[in-house]
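Reopening this ticket.

The earlier resolution said the output was attached, but the attachment link was broken on my side. Pasting everything inline this time so it's all in one place.
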Amino acid sequence: MAPAVHIQIESLTFPPENDVVLHDIDLTVERGDFVAITGPVASGKSVLLHCITGAIPKFNEGKLCGKVSVMGQDIAEIPLPKMSDYLGYMMQEPQNQVVSVDVYEDIAFGMGNQNVPREEMDRKIHELLDFVGLSGMESRKTEELSGGQAQRVVLAGVLALDAPILILDQPTAELDPQGRRDLYRHLAYLNKEKGVTVIMVMDRTEEVMACANRVLFMENGTVAKEYAPEEFMVLQKKIHGSNHTVPSRTGEVVVQVSGAGYTYKGGFVGCEPLDLTIRQGEFVSVIGLNGSGKTTLMKMLEGLLVPTVGTVELFGQKVTKKNINELRKRIGFLFQNPDFQIFASTVAEEVAFTLKLRKIPEDKIKAKVEAALSQSGLLPYLQEHPQKLSRGQRQMLALASVLVGEPDIIIADEPTSGLDEAQSYMIMDALSDLVKQGKTVLLVTHDLSMARQYAHRIVSMHRHEIVLDIPGTEMMNHRETLERIGLMFQEGGLSV
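Inline output:
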């Protein structure tokens, strides 16, 4: 019986560029394998997935020297639309894969192209919505979905095709802990009980290892090494096993939230009235499931949303429309999706933008930009267009653009989303270094392990309210409450 996937790539380039993106790959994935792929940003992980799907070179034109076979068929001989008979593919960024106006039609899209009978289609859509935790949202407009909700909708559409192979590019990057737990449980069931082959670019090690039977480490465009899951876990614990919490050096109050809440148009509650005090030099992590109110709270602090009730004070001043622009100069905001804040034509121009607005001399701008890009590992891409970078690299670029302005408060909304663990630790270490300098960091995250390792305080939100505000070191003492609100635990660490 032919393997699920056989890859023989001598080289992959994208003319007129001469850089070799992939090279010297000879890989066989057997039917029923669960393969986890990891490696640094821009190591070729997502590109390899594109080659398996046939998107490269059929859609994204490239010069591929080699051969890729799926279920014994050379994909060069399979029309691109027919690839869905062999595999389901979930992209790294769900917004790029949403194709319809509402949730029902989006999940139905692939099945419609396969001429699935309407009655069967309707049944499967309701079953899949129940699984991904979106029951009752059939008519919800896709443009109104959060990142996590969009990821669940895309996943449902992929699973609806019943393909024998699943190709997943960081499928849980925007899901909360409960969503990740559900996803991996379902993938394990499909793999073990249904024999579905899974090839996944992974986001967090411990969450995938319970499912995978092989781990591939990519570096510089090739598969550098293969590990057994147990072997890889031991290696990761040696590298990332320590606690990184910076001793708290708190000063004056820099954030005071007094009964502040926000209700969106249509009556949807973003935040119930909240009270929260944050002092200079604190590292505060805000955790909670998707839709719990975390992002709405951060937007009120940044002044992107004006509370419909209560007040927000920054640096001792009540936030108003008149003073928000001045206060924002002391705040850096890092969005969950870097593309929401990247707009310049080159990497250098993106990082320099804030400094130019402040009329910093050109020689100092050049030095600051190069220092920021060197710290983030992006100096070689100084003159590249930001959209030529990978998702992880764009996240690092957005962070560099924020930090170059030396803000007093840094608000980071899921800054490690879409990054591998090494890059995640690089970002978290950078934030930690800022706290050592007396800056204040507010981190919104689904990564409870990172929150526990770095934060002085953990603020947990549930149903638009703050239900816990505790020292980071005491997180394990509140296991019962965290389990009750869906932030589950597993043996040996915080759960998916």
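Reporter confirms the inline version is readable. The mean pLDDT is 88. The two ends are 35 Å apart (CA to CA).
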